[in-house]
Amino acid sequence: MSASVEIRMRVKDLRVELAENGEEILKGVSFELQAGKIFALVGESGSGKSVTSLAAMRLLPEALVITGGAVHVGKQDLFDLSESRMQTVRGRRVAMIFQNAMTALNPVQTVGQQVAETLELHTTLKGKTIRQRVVQLFAEVGIPDPESRFEFYPHQLSGGQQQRVMIAMALACEPDVLIADEPTTALDVTIQEQVLDLIRELTQSRELAVLLITHDMGVVRNTADEVAVMYRGEIIEKAPVDEFFHNPKEAYSRRLIDALPDLTRFQSVAVEQPLLQLDDVKVHFPIRKGVLQRVVDYTRAVDGVSLSIGRGETYALVGESGSGKSTLGRAILNLEEIAGGEISFKGKPIGSLSRRAMLPYRKEIQVIFQNPYSSMNPRMSVGEIIAEGMISLGLGLTAGEREERIGQLLERVQLPREYSQRYPHEFSGGQLQRIAIARALAVEPELIICDEPTSALDVSIRAEVLELLQELQREFGVSYLFITHDLSIVPSLAHHVGVMQLGKLVEQGSAEQILTAPKHPYTQALLNSVPRIDP
Amino acid sequence: MKPILLWSDALIFLLVIALCLFFYRLRRDPQTRERWGEVFSSRLGMVTFTVILVYVGVALLDSLHFRRALEAPEGLETEEIFYDNKVTSVLDVMLLGMGDRFERTYSAPFALKSFEKKNMKDEQGNAIRDFPPLEHAGRHLEDPAERWPDVAARSLTALLWGVLAAAVIIGLQWLALRRSTNPWYASWGVQAVVICLFVWMVNISRYYHILGTDLGGTDVMYQSLKGVRTGVLLGTLSTLIMLPIAVTLGVMAGYFKGWVDDVVQYLYTTLSSIPGILLIAASVLLFQVYIDLNPDFFSIGMEKADARFIALCFILGVTSWSTLCRLIRAETLKISQLGYVQAAHAFGVSHSRILGRHVLPNVVHIILITFVLDFSALVLAEAVLSYIGVGIDPSMGSWGNMINGARSELSREPTVWWTLTGAFFFMFALVLAANLFSDLVRDAFDPRTSMRRSEA
Amino acid sequence: MFAYIVRRMLYAIPILIGVNLLTFTLFFVVNSPDDMAVSQLGEKYVTPEAIATWKKKNGYDKPLFVNAGAEGSEVLTDTIFFSKSLKLFAFDFGRSESGRDITTDVATRMWPSLAVALPNFAIGIWVNICVALMVVMFHATRLDRWAVFVFVSLMSISYLFYIIGGQFLVAKTWKLVPISGFNIEAQPWKFLILPVLVGVVAGIGSGARWYRTLFLEEANQDYVRTARAKGASEISILFKHILPNALIPILTGVVVLIPSLFMGSLLIESFFGIPGLGSYMLDAIKSQDFAIVRSMVFIGSILYIIGLILTDISYTWADPRVRLN
């Protein structure tokens, strides 16, 4: 690599406003992209990082307008170009890949056609040559059997392969700049790692200048050369990646970095009497076929899982999407019928109780869901939401006592009492998740099943919610079954860890044991993809 | 005077009360209030809503029925009071007898003479064939040439009165609403126009037939106004009958799934596979046979027509629930998967409570959109059904019957165009207002469109 | 795929039975054959003998479900339910109340119906898609808003006015084509132009508005943004990406109607005097000929079910994501 750096894209004082009321979304963003380097723009939702990338491509939705600044590619300011000239820049000199490859690809065109379209638009190549070129590209981005994949439709490919197709499409015309907007967020961690590796490789081999937009500090740590932190439409800190992680200047950056896992400190494991025990639990969904829709086989969503959770303990159930971990949680709640095995709570079997017979246990076992926005009825006030369980489970409180308790609970999860009069849509995701915790606590359960309670939240808020959960555990001695895909939150939280893959528990043990000396290759793969401050 | 409560009158007033209660309850929920605020913060929303309210108001006035007491016939010594066989409504009174001024047959708008020639005697007593003068139009004029200046002069005075009335009514509203940020002025504009038109119409119609008369000699303007009640009632009552069926079945199918879902799906596939118009026609005909065979059930002609009308609403309602049911089933399926229903299960909340508190309130927007949309569709359908001969009883005024009676007259020379024109404009204004309003309601309430806005 | 179609056909059987039971209840249980005889004969001529003769002539003189007086299998077959309802399954429609053979009538009358309905349908969809595409090109401009207003206004006009207006303007005032009538031998197009034109124009409002919504819904999808990021022009995005995707929901709404085209249009056919199934039904309703109505209900249901199956099949053809099973 030559000593002099080649600047491929220069964004200067970029300003964007809401067309409706002139609210500032970007307040003067400036940065430069260098050839062969990955520049990461990190920030939480609403920080304006995606708006920056779309503005640079001039692809903003109509509600947003660019009010100032310049984006230079080479000598050319993109904001001076006519729309038709701009079209020759997009895909040719600046290419872009998006977060969710499944929806970003046209569902009714073959992936080959879609990559070919870029070539047809910007080159003079024809028919066979284009096809050869596409197959070459597919091979380059690591799609197996590229020749036959040309004729595949997006839904026939896995998530990782779809994102590879997107990358092939972006690289087809050998652009100078690649903008990657959260390219791995929708992918499972093991796949995420492979796609990031590919982007890193291509940056080197093709001398690309990459703008990587992400909310994930782990991705930044492992991939980027330089990093900029965005907060409310401004870049508040910009630094080379090593320097940034060892010596962040802003408090906000510090918070983001602190959210990364510390793999040296674990929860101590105390020997406890078991609260919940699963013994060879199976949940099967029938597959029907043929004229008469006979059941020919079963999808074995949960296929013989045995585990035990002690009083006041947190058990983290880790696995990627489709591993059956959420189904298992629903089965414990008796929301899913079990096909075999037994679930016992305090020694009593509860696996196949009827709706009515389960009622007494509802008070003991509660749940917090992943998506805080859909887990509360938008037409009920927060007070009514929290009161619902108390009423239906017959806690025998008077209306006044209930109200008092709601107030206490809200204060316990660090929200003002007055919020009980408000409605869910007035709150942020983090606040809603606190309300969900209050709702679960309202009936004084002994076990709470937390189904990915923090994965929809921004990292800085995530830490606060996890902290709150731990506090409550110390205070009330409640146990958690913590279902997550994110190994990085496990060390600070869990006493025991179980790793699920394809409906089976492949490994379980104390958190320290699993995270420091994993035995199963799948656990090792998961662990390898966890970002660390010191790689 | 003896008040008469027809079945349809009772139903429509019940409906109005129910709707008011419903909206009063909805006020509690801030999200709903916000959405309605969105609808009414646009000028179009205000205008269309006012137009719809005007129609509803006319329909309600026309639903307060009574029978006039007849003067005791001379020489008959009796205490008994006899009542007119004809049913009058408050609207008829307000129109100052517009409906009582019959001519012999067709006459053009503002015409002084009949549309058809007749054998008469002239002043000298010779038999001639000429256009006879109308009985209730321009009788006060000495010279036919004075007609247009007379119309202009009367219009001017009427308009002055109209402006005065409008100023009073709008002034009162201004006092109450001046602090509101909603564009009330748009509504006031419509109100002013409507009030002026109404005052003008009532005044002028005492001297002329504004929209002429039809084959039977009835004032066309009067008929068009009478059609308002039929249209509004048909649109609302049918939907009202359809709603409980569609909502109950749809929610049950989507929530309980399994065999309940199978049965409901079977029911609506079967029903929607039958050509709708045939099913409606057959049902109406069968009901007609029933009425014909049991004439003793109804004491006056109006009640018979009313029975047929309600039967029609009922049939339209029972045959048209499948679309809404399908929508609600799909939405319920989606809602049942959401966190808050799952959480309710985890809290051991009973099925009926989940349905009532979690599922139903969250499908209300679909019901609302369907209600407004179906309303306009039903008003249009009435015309078609009346044409086919399975619609409103001919003795009951309706736009469909007007069109049906006048469609062949277009081939006359000169053309009889005014009946169609009257029906066209009265119908068009209502349906257009309802359609535009339903668009606004959908934009505000449909989560898909509101999501798109928040993304942007 | 094959198993799927077979299953759908099997599923059609209970639906047809349901339709049959419903019509049977409506026509024979709610209203007894005696009531029908009275209304057919007219009140003046009602004598018990006249009713009996009429019932005998039309085959209504049997018991509803079980004929206790008959022997062998006739206990069940010599009943109204069997002769009037079950025979429909064998496409044996019997005779109308006025004595004509319904099957022959249907066979001859469906062609004129199709001659109007098919061009109406095809041209209508084409015009609506074109209009909607044009409007979508000007999305979020003043033109777009006015276009929507015009669509809604067009929707708010009763179908009857389109027909009356069309006849009045094109046929009466401009004298371009005959007002009504149909002649399959001599220049049938002369009689078809106006009904087709009226049908197409009347459909623009709701059709184009609906398609516009579908196009806009697709225009908000992620893959459209991808296409823009590729450097594709707006026109090419509209035709290469949005249109093929929007065709999928259009297909579902439209394919189900294709078989029902045989039924024709009640209003158009009666106004324009086209001797198709639409006017056949209308005449049957007006003369209260329940035998015809019953048969048409059955035919209509079968066509609708075929439409549903065709819709599913067309899905697999238009949308690579859909596999039937």
First-residue to last-residue Cα separation of chain C: 6 Å
Beta-strand fraction estimate of chain C: under 5%
User: What is the CATH topology assignment of one domain in chain A?
Assistant: Rossmann fold
- Main sheet: strands, sense, barrel of chain A: 6 strands, mixed
CATH architecture of the largest domain in chain C: Orthogonal Bundle
Give me the secondary-structure topology.
The complex is a heterotrimer of chains A (535), B (456) and C (325).
Chain A: E1 7-18, E2 24-34, E3 38-42, H1 49-57, E4 64-73, E5 76-77, H2 83-89, E6 94-97, H3 101-104, H4 111-122, H5 127-140, H6 146-149, H7 159-171, E7 177-181, H8 189-206, E8 209-214, H9 217-223, E9 226-231, E10 234-240, H10 241-246, H11 251-258, E11 274-289, E12 294-310, E13 314-318, H12 325-332, E14 340-345, E15 348-349, H13 355-362, E16 365-368, H14 382-392, H15 399-412, H16 429-441, E17 447-451, H17 459-476, E18 479-484, E19 496-501, E20 504-510, H18 511-516, H19 521-528
Helix pairs in contact in A: 4-5, 4-7, 5-7, 7-8, 14-16, 15-16, 16-17
Chain B: E1 2-4, H1 7-26, H2 30-40, H3 43-61, E2 65-70, E3 82-89, H4 90-94, E4 118-121, E5 127-130, H5 147-177, H6 184-204, H7 220-256, H8 258-273, H9 276-293, H10 301-319, H11 322-337, H12 339-346, H13 351-359, H14 364-388, H15 399-406, H16 418-445, H17 447-455
Antiparallel strand pairs in B: 1-2, 2-3, 4-5
Chain C: H1 2-30, H2 33-41, H3 48-58, H4 74-77, H5 80-85, H6 102-137, H7 142-155, H8 159-173, H9 188-219, H10 222-230, H11 234-255, H12 266-271, H13 277-286, H14 290-318
Helix pairs in contact in C: 1-14, 2-3, 6-9, 7-9, 8-9, 9-11, 10-11, 11-14, 13-14
